[in-house]
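Supplementary Data S3. Sequence and structure tokens for construct A.
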Amino acid sequence: MNIDKELDARGLSCPLPILRTKKVLSDMTSGQLLKVVATDSGAPKDMQAFANQTGHELVTHSETNGEYTFVFKKK
């Protein structure tokens, strides 16, 4: 997978990971991929809701040792 941008949201609490994801995606072009790494336990639910509300595709998400990784495809 060719990641175009990465966002480190570790240590940030809701709603900051979502707000920063939204900001970075707004500066990207359609079809580009954004990788987000967060540690907020609410991130999986929040990121899925964000994808559903905005239309950006949540391509993959995973959890390893308390870190959540998401890959979004800009609509």
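Construct B, processed identically:
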Amino acid sequence: MISTLYKAFRKVKGMLFMPFYNIYAKVIFFLNDVNYGKDLKVLGVMKVRVTRRGKVTIGDNFCANSGENFNVIGRQQKTIFWVEGELSIGDNVGMSSTALICNHKITIGNDVKLGGGVCVYDTDFHNLDPEIRRDPTLDKKTSGKAEVNIGDNAFLGAHTTILKGVTIGENSVVGACSLVSKSIPANQIWAGNPAKFIKEL
């Protein structure tokens, strides 16, 4: 009986809070000058930071789960947009506890699915030279950056990390927990650390 009441309470509480998350997302997008399309759906509280030179556009039917209550597969975190460059997300894109760190340019096509805990980085964050790393300003300014492109219908499995300069071809699938450091052609499955070709689709 107590267990049933608890489950009912949990469900009602979730239903009551759901509209709040969408409202919060719209407010935080507005404050960061994020352009988004129709039918936005966000569950949980996202972390969004767009600098003065940053630009974010999101297509229609965007769906994001953010945080431990909405991504219960482990390694939960908020969905994070940290944008100092240009981030473009197409239509019908879904993501869960995803981190998009955009210092240069990240482009995500239509109908892309990013599994729980996926991280996409278009920067090395730091210079490879230890002398330069001693100067935080110079370190950040000289770190490697290269555009990331994720093609239409791509699916990135949970906890995958995509590094700078990578293109994921349309329809391709990346297995869970993969580290992708080089580009993947269209219509292929890759997996591993580092990710390697598995088979054609």
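The longest helix spans residues 2-31. The domain at 2-200 is CATH 2.160.10.10 (UDP N-Acetylglucosamine Acyltransferase; domain 1).
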